[in-house]
Design a protein that fits this description.
By secondary structure, the protein is α+β, with helices and mostly antiparallel strands. Helices cover 47% and strands 20% of the residues.
Length: 431
Amino acid sequence: MKVELIKQEGNKVSFKLTVENDKFEAAITKAYNKNKGKYNIPGFRKGKAPRKVIETHYGKGVFYSDAIDIVFPEVYPAAIDELNIDPIDMPSIDVEEISKDNGLVILVDVEVKPEFELGQYKGVEVAKVDDTVSEEVINAKLEEMREKNSRLVSVERAIENGDTANIDFEGFDGEVAFEGGKGENYNLVIGSASFIPGFEEQLVGKKAGEEVEVNVTFPEEYHAANLAGKPVVFKVKVNDVKVKELPELNDEFAQDTTEFNSLEELRADVTAKAQEEAKTAANNELRNSVIEKVVANTEVEVPEVMVNHEVENQLMELNYQLQYQGFGMEQFLQMTGKTMEEFKAEFVANRREEAVRNVKTSLVIEAIAKAEDVQVSEEEVNAEIQKMADAYNMTVEQVREALKATDLKDMEGQLKIRKTIDLLVDSATIA
């Protein structure tokens, strides 16, 4: 293989890649063996015609395209290593020559990461982040625990705001019940605004056993187009009226809901955890402040292709989150009332600024790691694998078996980023 740089302007690189004839011939043979079953040649059973015969019938270059698809991925990585370039997109290729003397000669155009000069990244000044925890925060966390351990108790009185009404309901558009408008034994918190505007307010003052017709109008932007902006009637029966009963915050509460014997012990534990959370949050905020300052000190022309890749990754991440929650993208689009094209255009518009910022940050941190020769040792990788093993209750060997080579490379990359940020924070001036 021979590589010849033709030109490099900005982040556009062109080079000539020559593959020896023997190597390309081997790729043609692979392409023939892969595709020979597709050709019907008189006098031969399907898939049994020799390569020369197929080439005579269909042309000498019949297998060239597939052969290039085979050989190019084999030689391209070595070519970019030799040129010491870092591509950010798929290359475009143009075949210049195929001959016995010169083999396969390809012209390659590819976008690479931009070159730029780093601004000040050591000794940047950032404000100290307060990590103290107030009594109000501690009390709020204890109240959250009371809420989690609350129970609903039936009451014999009319519904008030804040109550939970257990209801049966069915919605009608004129005289016709509409799809998705029916429910039984549904617990509705009055005042939660979880139903159509105006629905919950019309239940206030009603008692268990009463039936009521609730008149509401669907919002104009409602996801179901056949109901958007329409006035409808819900026939509702109140089955029960319940109020939330909170347990008292005392020693008995601590004993019943936690491993502690007294409220004092519980409060001390909540305080310690809150202080640890505040310390972690303050540290993260400090690190983010340092990164923002460092990135702001460097001018980088962010390639559009990297921004597009970042937005695509964010869209993919959203799709994974939806699947995790039991939704598909199709269901999500139905709920939002948008087509995929409309949603994607809106998503790109909303995320573009964030994507540019993320890409620039990544480029700057990577450049600093290179300038400072940040390295990740085998011991550090092993320590990270041990953390994973502990977190998932697995052995180190099981984790290693589960990790692919790309996973280990990603892990090493994340460790390098973390060490680089540590370097920046350690050198920062905290005022």
